[in-house]
Amino acid sequence: MYSAAKSKLPKVISKVDVICDFLEVYIHAILYYRKVYPQLLFEDRSAYGIPVKSSRHPELNAYILDVVMAIKTEFEKENSPGDVLIDILDSEGDSIESFVLELSMQSGDYEPGHDIELRSALIRMSTLDPAPDLPNGKCFCSN
User: Fold this and answer.
1) Pairing of strands 42-47, 95-102
2) Mean of the pLDDT values across residues 138-142?
3) Residues 52, 57, 62, 68, CA torsion sign
């Protein structure tokens, strides 16, 4: 997990891999900061040079990874990422809160200096207004 966020990066890394690594970290952040799951379920980690929260639950982690891999497959088919919508749903499947990530790939190779933008997005997530009162039985999905 967080392979692109580790300090020892290969010289050339796929931008799709970088975006997908970021999405994995970002989904964990959404789930933690929006209190979709109990905060005791999360542990401290580090990504992009900042502290982040990561689920400790193996089934949730596997589900998040499945979502990210499905998104990666779509990115690779289209040769360019598009927008990613992450919804927090109530038990009836109605959207309570949505996050839209507008993704684009500039030409050129990924460089570790691009982590500043990724770090900034994670920091903004941690400073959002408090989560709305969410009912029990909430979950998330990505489109």
Assistant:
1) unpaired
2) 57
3) negative
